[in-house]
Design brief:
Length: about 400
């Protein structure tokens, strides 16, 4: 039976943010997801869900047409989440990993699917204390989704270098800018997406994995980019969680523009840096450069038979995307990518804080403050709604 890709006529957006719950006093992770989600359930406008461990909640937007709609949704939800969490002595922060938390001390969220994951993957699942940014962009059909994903693989290093925010793991500097991606690559369905020619080939791949019990649903495919046929989207999952909403929106705009640009080229029959099978073997090296060195990473350009530094290649790409940003009404947000290049990604900033303080607790405090510095909307937060009195 053919696998239906629910077509999206417009390049809609959906964003998922994985949030760290931080104990206010110890600065370690707090296993407070159950009471926080219980309180959040009283606010119908809040779109919070659980994740594998109890030190994380995920904030989801509704289906949005523009980055500005994404901003409105995330600002209000983060404000309300902060107020709910604060009443529990919990701060919120966003980064790819927590700098010093020992994964062995954390609790699994009591949900059947998570226990199945734990039973299957054992140690791999127990140490999964990573936090990412996932961006969905609507596309019109499955063949188009596969073609765009094949081209997007070329830009995984660019997205990772900008978002890298996980240099520390269980109290140690890993030497990487993103240790989060190394954790996910250990899963059999993690890492780079398979090279697939078209939607029919994806159908064969998916149905084989499903019928043999290798996966239970599309949720069990942890690729850096995957086609999400239930939503009619391409889901970009490569990014570490980014500490500020300003940076997050810049990345959402970047991804939105990239997908629309590549989709447009596909429609015109062009091959803009289309990933061919003979070049697929370059993708792991290029991704590694971004994970290891961040914006200083040097990616291999097959057509040039040489390397280009990511911090130099990204501005070139931004110039190409400017007309797309204008059409999508996200010029300001896309331009903020230049600020990340100038200021440095979160991995670099975290290391600067540690260099000055010699304290990983200070690093966590800096992540909390970076998110707090975001100006929230002047509208009344959900928490002050009369229907939520007494919470």
């Amino acid at each position: 039976m053919p696998l239906e890709f629910k077509k999206s006529a417009q390049p809609t957006l959906g964003v998922e943010l994985e949030i760290q719950l931080i104990d206010r006093h110890s600065m370690g992770l707090a296993s407070e997801a159950i009471p926080i989600l219980e309180k959040a359930s009283h606010f119908k406008e809040l779109r919070l869900v659980s994740e594998l461990n109890q030190s994380m909640v995920e904030v989801n937007t509704e289906i949005c047409k523009t980055v500005k709609e994404v901003e409105k949704s995330l600002r209000r939800q983060l404000q309300t989440l902060r107020e709910i969490s604060s009443s529990r002595g919990v701060e919120i922060a966003i980064a790819g990993t927590h700098p010093f938390q020992n994964w062995q001390e954390l609790k699994i969220y009591p949900k059947a699917r998570y226990f199945k994951i734990l039973e299957k993957f054992q140690w791999l699942a127990r140490r999964l204390i990573t936090y990412g940014l996932h961006v969905h962009v609507g596309v019109r059909d499955g063949d188009r989704a596969i073609a765009v994903i094949n081209s997007l693989i070329n830009y995984i290093p660019h997205l990772l270098a900008l978002s890298a925010s996980s240099p520390y793991w269980t109290g140690k500097d890993t030497g990487l800018c993103s240790s989060r991606v190394a954790v996910f690559e250990s899963f059999p369905t993690g890492g780079l997406p398979y090279f697939l020619v078209n939607w029919k080939e994806f159908e064969t791949c998916y149905e084989t994995l499903l019928s043999t019990g290798a996966i239970g649903s599309i949720k069990d495919i942890y690729w850096d980019i995957r086609p999400h046929f239930d939503f009619g989207t391409i889901e970009v999952r490569i990014c570490d969680g980014m500490p500020t909403l300003h940076e997050t929106l810049a990345m959402v705009a970047f991804i939105h523009c990239l997908v629309v640009w590549l989709d447009d080229q596909y429609q015109k029959g062009a091959k803009v840096r289309q990933l061919h099978m003979q070049h697929y073997w370059l993708a792991p090296e290029n991704k590694w450069q971004a994970a290891r060195y961040g914006l200083e990473g040097q990616v291999i350009q097959p057509e040039q038979r040489g390397r280009t530094q990511l911090k130099d290649d990204i501005p070139r790409l931004l110039e190409i995307l400017k007309p797309i940003a204008l059409a999508l009404n996200c010029v300001e947000e896309l331009d903020s990518i230049y600020e990340i290049i100038k200021r440095g990604n979160s991995a670099a900033r975290q290391r600067q804080v540690f260099y000055r303080s010699q304290s990983l607790k200070a690093v966590v405090e800096s992540l909390i403050e970076e998110l707090k510095e975001e100006p929230f909307t002047s509208e009344e937060p959900f928490l002050h709604s009369p229907s939520n009195a007494g919470l």
